[in-house]
């Protein structure tokens, strides 16, 4: 680790307060809808109230009469505007079915929320009034809501495709042909479980907002959008609209959370751009909360079947997984790839032989499209294996922690080549799990549980756990290529030392709450020996940061942060040549410590970086062939994914009379390698854990059988507040990643991945004496109560 | 979240508000704290043509000891009800329940009068004042009249208030040291109750009202009757589930709601008996 070279200043690992917070907390930060854009027209989108219907006619004449309304467009009116359908960048198989998807539907609507008409008005109120005045005649069709129903193809949504199945993606890894089947035949213990990953609504605190500002002369256009992906958006909107890419600039101002929901190319972005060009005037749009629930992508939506085979000691000998993925009505940017991101992780943190049989079939439904949502595929996989291993422990009548210990990949086995051929670079699962057990006081809780969970008791204690491995830091471009992903996984960084020794870091990552400005400044500060406040971090504007692949998949630090460290190295290399020239010594004789170059062994012969920065600017005295200025640019493509891991535990108390679940203790032990800023790491874990608890206990996008969303406001869609979640104890083990010079791994999704199975295993543990062996998510009081009723009434035991 | 267009007038007294509402008729609505009305308007589920803002009628915001009852002005905010020393002493069940309405922001804007006039069966204060045997004072063009809480609630969001009448005062009998309990069962702290119970008990007497168990707040007279006849708490509580025919929604089926009602009534009576 070269990071320790600059020890004297060591800022890395300190709990520096986030520089992002004062402007965010005082309202100084500008979100897209805060931008003052004179003369902008307001877009409003009329949305289908039917999940599946033919559009028979649209009458816009009354809407056009409303004062302030400038124009109304239907899908047919705009059809010739699009150079291509909306993009899906992940054709997972060669024969994947992908129905054409345009910003407005023309003949048929396919989900409640599908855009039908676009209004432009001089003010927001008129645009909203116009929506009420548009008369659409629909011919309702039978909606496909249920996944099994979709699979049956009885009612095909996209008739031209001939089926509701988009693709089947298998991953069969066998040491010898047929060995999976063989293992199940020979197994001493077997379990077969079925889980439903309910649909979740990401509900970023800031809904989507857009402003497209055209330059009437020359054809340039700037898109301001509350997006996670300004760089990808630039390419995709240029292609979809047929605008030369160099004429498109995308800016993401302050962005209030995304969780994957802003990792997309949306109809409204394309509508704003197309109509801004048509009318030669800026067009803006801001999403209403219930529009956000219906027309922004949703997450999860899978039915999982998992089977484990194990020998007499409980060592897992084979894993078989069948998934049905709910794509919703259309494929958005990476919709079909989400189940694949989990496909390699259904063996979790366990050492299994090459006997792995995975297959995912994904189907269309008449529901809002799904796409990546915090963890994307990996929470689903972790949930299935962790719930299944508990089922196996029940089957074997042994302690689930003991069973995990028998199966963990051992510390000595790292770097570990998994059944899939992927290399898990580092890990120590037992250490993390034991640390979690200590923080939980597992022995004490088990003793208390014995005392408390007596027959007739109505407040039952339960302990749950989950150990996870995360495959994140979406990178190695070649591996992504092998999965048919259309883009790479590198990240770009530029580091520039200004004449006064202040530093600009330009990153291709696009933060929307993660604190990159703070963390990236810390990295540059550590490397260059300057104060963190002397480092400015520029991002999220394609005119400033021309290259980048943005922020998702816990990639920003292990890819983008490492790129910054590498760019700093390049800057230091160049500065060293200049220093050697001016100090009249050989570059090899110089050391760089605390921001100063000095000749090894004679500390008086020294030059601070400040002098070199100014010298590089004046260019008065540079070595021959050395270009002026101190700047370096790097595009970094890591050799491997990032593999954070950890164990979460929690203690719950279930009120059997009401079904209410109370989390008494929550412990998260996460290992993300070296921590740049522990304060930010804890923040990511807290937020992630709360989102996982939300899936376990609170949140679900509920649809009726006609495909109407019943949870379209925050009164029905239960995002938990601070008062509804426990205090979270965070603990860490630190196993530096050997893959990158900072020794870092991603931490953005870990909490979400660990939390849902931790809570659910605890609830089942609490109710085990009543014969409860499974529980649907979210474990609402009613669901818990009904499950108890069925277990005790039905004599399941 | 943009409401349909409306006009706005601000009243500075009850009399002015009533004369304005008589003038504009059924298109007009009073605006108190706005925390029930404005969300409905933003979703365009309510589209009044005229809003008569009574939120600044200062002389209707008070809590006074009036001998055998406490008089509360209709424009008193939930937060003032929650923190009132007079109520802590004489009607702690009401101040406690007010502390469970929504979150702090809601409690600083919402009014007890708005909550009662809105007659939402899921709201906490209608049922609580019902359990306490409150009397509501309303004022119309012809003067004031008193309505017993038990006769006030007529249906879902419907009350005995005429369109040109305004609720001006809530009179809550002093609890005289009765034991009490407020049980609010919900999934998130700031939510409306899935089922709620307001109860008080004094020797052979009890008052029990149910939140969100039907189209109106419900006075569980059979439970109180059973207690008066000397029934055990659990026997009396079991009768709660027969008091109502509650709706089924995302959070609770009819069956589960009825079950919750008896569990919560039992817990409330147990706590009130301590
Ligand atoms: C996020 C949120 C959470 C909430 N949670 C809860 C909860 O947990 N429990 C709960 O009980 N409530 C809850 N509420 C509702 C809150 O208590 C409201 O404040 C209350 O229901 C209405 O009071 P208001 O003063 O805001 O009335 P407004 O919204 O101003 O008016 C409501 C209705 O009553 C009429 N009205 C108002 N005052 C009078 C009057 N003096 N005479 C005649 N008519 C009148 C109005 O015309 C209107 O029709 C919540 C509200 C929100 C926004």
Note the main sheet of chain A: 7 strands, mixed
Tell me which CATH architecture of the largest domain in chain B applies here: 2-Layer Sandwich
Say what the CATH topology of the domain at 490-636 in chain A is: Aldehyde Oxidoreductase, domain 4
Shape-level CATH architecture of the domain at 490-636 in chain A: 2-Layer Sandwich
**Total strand count of chain A, please?**
28
User: What is the CATH superfamily of the domain at 490-636 in chain A?
Assistant: Aldehyde oxidase/xanthine dehydrogenase, molybdopterin binding domain
The main sheet of chain A orders its strands as 3-5-1-12-9-10-11
> Low-confidence parts of chain B, pLDDT < 50 over ≥5 residues?
none
- Which percent range fits the helix content of chain B? 25-40%
The fold-level CATH name of the largest domain in chain B is: Uridine Diphospho-n-acetylenolpyruvylglucosamine Reductase, domain 3
Total E-strand runs of chain B: 14
Strands side by side in the biggest sheet of chain B: 4-5-10-6-7
Task: Explain the overall architecture.
The complex is a heterodimer of chains A (797) and B (274). The termini of chain A are far apart. Residues 1-6 of chain A have low confidence and may be disordered. Chain A contains 21 helices and 28 strands. Chain A has a seven-stranded mixed β-sheet with strand order 3-5-1-12-9-10-11, sandwiched between helices. Chain A has a five-stranded mixed β-sheet with strand order 7-15-14-13-8, sandwiched between helices. With 797 residues, chain A is of the alpha+beta class. Chain A has a domain at 490-636: 2-Layer Sandwich (Aldehyde Oxidoreductase, domain 4). Chain B is of the alpha+beta class and 274 residues long. Chain B folds into three domains: 7-53, Uridine Diphospho-n-acetylenolpyruvylglucosamine Reductase, domain 2 (2-Layer Sandwich), CATH 3.30.43.10; 63-173, Uridine Diphospho-n-acetylenolpyruvylglucosamine Reductase, domain 3 (2-Layer Sandwich); 182-272, Enolase-like, domain 1 (2-Layer Sandwich), CATH 3.30.390.50. Chain B has helices at residues 14-24, 37-42, 78-83, 85-90, 92-98, 104-109, 112-118, 124-131, 221-228, 233-238, 254-272, and strands at 7-10, 28-31, 50-53, 63-65, 69-73, 135-140, 143-148, 153-155, 158-159, 166-173, 179-185, 195-202, 205-211, 218-219. In chain B, the strands form four sheets. Chain B has a five-stranded antiparallel β-sheet with strand order 4-5-10-6-7. In chain B, strands 11-12-13-14 form a four-stranded antiparallel β-sheet, with helices on both faces. In chain B, α5 packs antiparallel against α8. Chain B is globular. The termini of chain B are far apart. At the A-B interface, α4 and α21 of A face α11 of B. The complex binds flavin-adenine dinucleotide.
């Amino acid at each position: 680790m070269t990071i320790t070279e600059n020890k004297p200043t060591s800022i890395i690992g300190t709990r520096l307060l986030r520089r992002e917070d004062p402007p965010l907390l005082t309202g100084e930060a500008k979100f897209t809808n805060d931008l003052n854009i004179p003369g902008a027209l307001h877009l409003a989108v009329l949305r289908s109230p039917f999940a599946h219907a033919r559009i028979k006619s649209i009458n816009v004449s009354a809407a056009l009469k409303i004062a302030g309304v400038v124009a109304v467009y239907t899908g047919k009116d705009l059809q010739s505007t699009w150079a291509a359908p909306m993009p899906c960048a992940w054709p997972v198989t060669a024969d994947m079915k992908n129905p054409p998807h345009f910003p407005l539907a023309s003949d048929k609507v396919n989900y409640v929320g599908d855009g039908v008409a676009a209004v432009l008005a001089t003010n927001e109120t008129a645009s909203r009034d116009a929506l009420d005045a548009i008369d659409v005649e629909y011919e309702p069709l039978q909606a496909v809501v249920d996944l099994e129903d979709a699979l049956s193809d009885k009612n095909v949504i996209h008739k031209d495709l001939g089926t509701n199945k988009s693709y089947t993606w298998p991953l069969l890894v066998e040491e010898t042909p047929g060995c999976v089947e063989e293992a199940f035949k020979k197994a001493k213990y077997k379990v077969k479980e079925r889980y439903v990953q309910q649909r979740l609504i990401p509900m970023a605190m800031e809904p989507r907002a857009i402003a497209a500002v055209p330059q009437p002369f020359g054809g340039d256009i700037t898109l301001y959008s509350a997006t996670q992906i300004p760089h990808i958006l630039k390419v995709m909107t240029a292609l979809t609209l047929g605008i030369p890419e160099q004429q498109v600039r995308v800016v993401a101002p302050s962005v209030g959370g995304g969780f994957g929901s802003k990792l997309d190319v949306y109809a409204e972005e394309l509508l704003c751009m197309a109509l801004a060009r048509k009318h030669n005037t800026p067009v803006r749009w801001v999403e209403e909360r219930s529009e956000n629930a219906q027309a922004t992508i949703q997450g999860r939506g899978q039915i999982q079947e998992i089977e484990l085979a194990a020998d007499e000691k409980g060592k897992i000998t084979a894993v078989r997984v069948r998934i049905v993925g709910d794509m919703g009505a259309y494929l958005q940017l990476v919709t079909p790839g989400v189940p694949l991101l989990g496909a390699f992780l259904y063996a979790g943190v366990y050492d299994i032989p090459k006997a792995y049989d995975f297959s995912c079939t994904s189907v269309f439904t008449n529901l809002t499209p799904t796409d990546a949502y915090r963890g994307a595929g990996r929470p689903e996989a972790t949930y299935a294996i962790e719930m299944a291993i508990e089922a196996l422990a029940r089957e074997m009548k042994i302690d689930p922690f003991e069973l995990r210990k028998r199966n963990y990949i051992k510390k000595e086995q790292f770097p570990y080549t998994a059944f899939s051929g992927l290399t898990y670079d580092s890990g120590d699962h037992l250490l993390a799990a034991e640390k979690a057990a200590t923080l939980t006081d597992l022995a004490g809780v088990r003793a208390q549980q014995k005392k408390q969970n007596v027959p007739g008791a109505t407040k039952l204690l339960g302990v749950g756990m989950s150990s996870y491995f995360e495959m994140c830091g979406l990178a190695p471009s070649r591996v992504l290529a092998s999965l048919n992903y259309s883009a790479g996984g590198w990240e770009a960084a530029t580091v520039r030392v200004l004449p006064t020794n202040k530093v600009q870091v330009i990153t291709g990552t696009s933060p929307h709450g993660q604190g990159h400005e703070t963390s990236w400044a810390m990295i540059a500060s550590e490397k260059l020996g300057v104060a963190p406040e002397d480092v400015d971090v520029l991002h999220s504007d394609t005119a400033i940061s021309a290259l980048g692949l943005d922020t998702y998949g816990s990639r920003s630090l292990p890819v983008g942060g490492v790129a910054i460290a590498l760019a700093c190295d390049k800057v230091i290399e160049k500065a060293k040549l200049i220093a050697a020239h001016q100090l009249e010594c050989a570059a090899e004789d110089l050391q760089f410590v605390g921001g100063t170059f000095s000749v090894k062994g004679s500390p008086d012969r020294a030059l601070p970086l400040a002098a070199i920065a100014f010298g590089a600017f004046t260019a008065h005295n540079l070595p021959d062939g050395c270009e002026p200025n101190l700047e370096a640019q790097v595009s970094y493509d890591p050799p491997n994914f990032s593999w954070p891991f950890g164990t979460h535990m929690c203690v719950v108390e279930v009120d059997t009379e009401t079904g209410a679940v109370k989390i008494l203790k929550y412990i998260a032990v996460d290992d993300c390698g070296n921590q740049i800023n522990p304060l930010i790491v804890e923040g990511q874990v807290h937020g992630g854990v709360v989102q996982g608890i939300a899936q376990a206990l609170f949140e679900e996008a509920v649809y009726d059988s006609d495909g109407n969303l019943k949870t379209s406001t925050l009164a029905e869609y239960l995002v938990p507040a601070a008062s509804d979640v426990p205090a979270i104890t965070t603990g860490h083990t630190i196993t530096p990643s050997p893959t990158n010079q900072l020794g870092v791994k991603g931490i953005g999704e870990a909490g979400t991945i660990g939390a849902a199975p931790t809570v659910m295993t605890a609830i089942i543990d609490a109710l085990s004496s009543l014969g409860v062996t499974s529980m649907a998510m979210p474990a609402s009081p009613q669901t818990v109560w009904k499950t108890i009723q069925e277990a005790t009434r039905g004599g399941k035991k | 979240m943009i409401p349909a267009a409306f006009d706005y007038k601000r009243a500075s007294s009850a009399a002015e508000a009533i004369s304005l509402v008589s003038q504009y008729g059924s298109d007009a609505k009073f605006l108190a704290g706005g925390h029930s009305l404005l969300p409905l308007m933003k979703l365009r589920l309510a589209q009044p043509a005229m809003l008569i803002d009574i939120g600044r009628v200062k002389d209707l915001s008070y809590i006074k000891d009036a001998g055998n009852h406490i008089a509360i002005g209709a424009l008193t905010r939930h937060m003032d009800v929650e923190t009132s020393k007079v109520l802590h002493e004489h009607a702690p069940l009401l101040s406690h329940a007010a502390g469970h309405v929504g979150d702090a922001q809601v409690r600083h804007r919402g009014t007890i009068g708005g909550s009662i006039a809105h007659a939402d069966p899921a709201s906490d204060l209608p049922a609580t004042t019902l359990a306490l045997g409150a009397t509501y004072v309303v004022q119309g063009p012809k003067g004031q009249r008193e309505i017993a809480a038990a006769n006030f609630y007529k249906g879902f969001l419907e009350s005995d208030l005429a369109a040109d009448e305004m609720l001006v005062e809530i009179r809550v009998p002093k609890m005289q040291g009765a034991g009490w309990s407020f049980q609010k069962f919900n999934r998130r702290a700031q939510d409306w109750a899935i089922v709620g119970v307001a109860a008080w008990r004094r020797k052979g007497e009890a008052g029990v009202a149910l939140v969100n168990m039907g189209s109106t707040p419900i006075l569980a007279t059979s439970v109180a009757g059973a207690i008066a006849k000397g029934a055990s708490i659990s026997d009396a509580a079991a009768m709660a589930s027969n008091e109502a025919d509650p709706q089924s929604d995302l959070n609770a089926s009819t069956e589960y709601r009825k079950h919750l009602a008896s569990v919560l009534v039992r817990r409330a009576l147990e706590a009130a008996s301590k």
